[in-house]
Amino acid sequence: MSEYLFIGVFALVALAVIAGILILSTILGPRKPTAQKLIPYECGMLPSEEAKGRFPVRFATIAMLFIIFDIEVVFMYPWAVALDQLKIFGLIEMLVFIVILAIAYVYIWGRGGLEWD
Question: Is the model's pTM score more than 0.70?
Answer without folding.
Answer: no
